[in-house]
From TrEMBL:
The keyword Oxidoreductase applies. It comes from freshwater metagenome. Keywords: FAD, Flavoprotein, Monooxygenase, NADP, Oxidoreductase. SUPFAM superfamilies: FAD/NAD(P)-binding domain. This is Unannotated protein. The lineage of its organism: unclassified sequences, metagenomes, ecological metagenomes. Its cofactor is FAD.
Length: 505
């Protein structure tokens, strides 16, 4: 049970006392990471009280908010699903299927009683005098200001701003007479039947959206500045199907298929570094096999970058390419000169006209859920910190952050961090410590400070645009997010909690 107290109003909070509840741990967000965190806490630290605060009206995060046609995962659910809950459907899943799976985790583990929906957190304030975080939130139903205190803050708020996607400020945007829509804020009343549509962008979102709308629209033009890598295959897992035929139980199937998927991904990732031209050739030939020898695959589907420098978009059953082959969709590789009254003028001089323009141009990075952080009366400048293993930060006590993988499924890391946080909390209890703060050792302080991510390694637009908001790293395993599941699956569980990187008080 939480403890409840009534305290004086916070500065700027309006008149009247605010009721404050205290929990040992407070999780921000009820997406796949936050629900995973709640599961790990309830199973590995059953004596800890905890609450999950979620700004939206329900669980799911990404899979609740995104409502564009065709929304689905681009990772297989054997690895995007949790380690502890077998996935029994097709590998690529719709948002509804992912939410159903998460709903079962909540129900099976009685997590609902720990979650408060409609609580948008605005401020997080750390006090070293009492080793406590004070969390201020607004209830979205009543606009009421509510306050919580907690010993440990577990940030599972995702990495992008949910309220608004990223749309570049193209010249002439305001001249365009048609409708502009961002997939992240898909309107309920959008009817695309018989419409000429342009989709700007060719990442995973466009690859999902285009086949889903192409049948309805008069025509869809995908306008990309530069090509993206795609890989295709059936939305089925042969090994899982065979094991099911043999009547193997689902727990085993989940574990065996996860291992196989991860093994194959490791081979491909390594090959992308060792033999990028070979991987590039294979990926491009995969696209050509759908579009035929006469299609200009060089122009529209041959990226300049090495495979895996940006996330590979999976196209189940080649549905995007089938749309192109049938003539319902087409690709244009060019740059935008300006928007016009009826569409888009390209740098080549060609003009595209459209009734609706969909800007599948990505996210705005939001590193801390747009929460204002203060540490002992000083605003936290996240970029001034150095990350401890991509999940804690120098000078930021009692806080962990879930930032998953890009090349492998996000949830693999959410599970690893879940184990780590529970181990850390137990270790603190053993030590009788109330505070843990990542702190550079004398030897670490000699190392050069680097940006969060090496752009040579991985460089999607939202990370490049937001690098100045992210913490920094050192060139040492303890002080970076390696983005390498195959290393971290062993190194995180084995990380020595007493190697001097974490200071306990
Ligand atoms: C369309 C799309 C498809 C994707 N597909 C894949 C995929 O196939 N595989 C993969 O690995 N990754 C994928 N990703 C990345 C994906 O975002 C993550 O994998 C994963 O869903 C993130 O889960 P999360 O719980 O960490 O964050 P989110 O899903 O973003 O959830 C965070 C939650 O925190 C809440 N929150 C944030 N700030 C506050 C606040 N201040 N107060 C209260 N609540 C707050 C939000 O409302 C939200 O519910 C995809 C992303 C998108 C957008």
């Amino acid at each position: 049970m939480s403890q409840t107290a009534t305290v004086a109003a916070a500065p700027g909070a309006g008149a009247g006392p605010i009721s404050t509840e205290h929990f040992d741990v407070l999780i921000v967000g009820a997406g796949i990471s936050g629900i995973g965190g709640a599961y790990h806490l309830s199973t590995q630290c059953p004596d800890k009280t905890f609450v999950v605060l979620e700004g939206l009206e329900s669980f799911g995060g990404t899979w609740l908010m995104h409502k564009y046609p065709g929304i689905r995962s681009d990772s297989d659910l054997y690895t995007f699903g949790y380690r502890f809950k077998p996935w029994t459907g097709a590998p690529i899943a719709t948002a509804d299927e992912i939410r159903k799976y998460m709903g079962e985790v909540i129900e099976d583990n009685d997590l609902d009683r720990h979650i408060r929906y409609g609580h948008r957190i605005t401020n997080a304030t750390w006090s070293s005098a009492i080793n406590t975080w004070t969390i201020d939130a607004i209830r979205t139903d009543t606009n009421e200001h509510v306050r919580f205190t907690t010993n440990f803050l577990w940030m599972c708020q995702g990495y992008y701003r949910h309220s608004q996607g990223y749309t570049p400020d193209w010249p002439g945007l305001d001249r365009y007479q048609g409708r502009i829509v961002h997939p992240q804020t898909w309107p309920d009343d959008l009817d695309l039947a018989g419409k000429q549509v342009i989709v700007i962008g060719s990442g995973a979102t466009a690859a999902t959206l285009v086949p889903a709308i192409a049948g309805d629209c008069a025509h869809v033009t995908v306008l990309q500045r530069s090509p993206t890598y795609f890989w295709t295959g059936r939305n089925a897992n042969e090994l899982a199907d065979t094991l099911r035929e043999l009547d193997i139980n689902e727990e085993w199937i989940h574990e065996i298929v996860r291992r196989k998927v991860l093994h194959d991904q490791q081979v491909i990732t390594q090959l992308s570094f060792d033999e990028p031209e070979l991987v590039k050739h294979e990926l491009i030939e995969g696209v050509r096999s759908f579009l035929g020898p006469d299609y200009d695959v060089e122009k529209h589907f041959t990226p300049q970058y090495r495979p895996w420098r940006q996330r590979l978009a999976f196209v189940p059953d080649g549905d995007l390419f089938q749309g192109i082959k049938s003539g319902k969709a087409s690709m244009v590789t060019d740059e935008i000169e300006s928007f016009t009254e009826h569409g888009i003028l390209l740098k080549s001089g060609e003009e595209l006209s459209a009734d609706v323009i969909i800007t599948a141009t990505g996210f705005n990075l939001s590193v801390l859920g747009d929460i204002e952080f203060t540490i002992d009366d000083k605003p936290l400048v996240f970029n001034d910190t150095i990350t401890y293993r991509g999940m804690m930060f120098t000078g930021v006590p009692n806080m962990a952050w879930v930032f998953g993988y890009f090349r492998a499924s996000w949830t693999l890391r959410a599970d690893l961090i879940g184990d780590f946080v529970c181990r850390l909390l137990s270790h603190m209890a053993e030590l009788g410590a109330s505070r843990v703060t990542p702190t550079l050792r004398a030897s670490d302080a000699q190392l050069p400070v680097l940006a969060w991510m090496d752009p040579e390694n991985f460089n999607p637009g939202y990370l490049m645009r937001g690098m100045h908001l992210l913490p920094q790293r050192l060139d040492a395993p303890e002080w970076q997010h390696s983005q390498d599941y195959w290393v971290e699956k062993d190194s995180l569980p084995a990380a020595d909690l007493d190697d001097g990187c974490l200071t306990y008080e």
